[in-house]
Amino acid sequence: MRITDKDFFTQDGYILAQQLIGKYICRNIAGNIVKMQITETECYLGTEDTACHAHKGRTARTEIMWRPGGVCYVYLCYGIHNLLNFISGDENQPQGVLIRGVKGFDGPGKLTKALQIDRSFNGEDLTASERIWLETGDSLPYKATPRIGIGYADKKDQDALWRFVAE
Q: Dihedral of the CA atoms 153, 66, 5, 146 (nearest 10)?
């Protein structure tokens, strides 16, 4: 069943990141519907989180993070990979959840390549889009771990258990 309830996405990013485990990303690629089950997420929680893009304030790149939850935030990482995030929380409370993995693809860059997601998806409304949306799925057991690849962040943010991985 498609998730169209905006309230699902406007939850705190910490909660949303956990609730996304087991849900399906659905992608319409030239009329072919591809569904992949989410197995790994990380949350980024506002201007106080030194690992979050919003930490340094509003910029042209991060403006999307100040929108209400339920839209995609897609950015280029290392000049190579488009990474898919779902904005969470209320308007002007910049939070997001990075989709790190789906069944069959264990990396955020690999999954966006498999789903043909590029920066044209930045700002896409997950509750109304015909290109990308979420569907309910089986709940999967998961564990919480520190986030990956954020060596630039303060130690407390590096150590926060804000990455969720299906077991």
A: 0
Q: Compute how many other C-beta atoms are within 10 angstroms of the C-beta atom of residue 60.
A: 6
pTM as predicted: 0.95
> How is residue 38 annotated by DSSP?
E
Q: Measured between alpha carbons, how far is residue 45 from residues 3, 14, 39, 103 in Å?
A: 22, 8, 20, 25
Measure the CA–CA gap between 149 and 78, rounded to whole angstroms. 12
Contact assessment for residue 38 and residue 102, using Cβ atoms and an 8 Å cutoff: yes
Asked whether the predicted pLDDT for residue 104 surpasses 80, the reply is: yes
CATH topology of domain 6-166: 3-methyladenine DNA Glycosylase; Chain A (3.10.300)
| Interval 140-144 mean pLDDT | 97
3-state secondary structure of 167: coil
List the domain boundaries for the chain.
6-166
Q: Distance between CA atoms of 140 and 74, rounded to whole angstroms?
A: 26
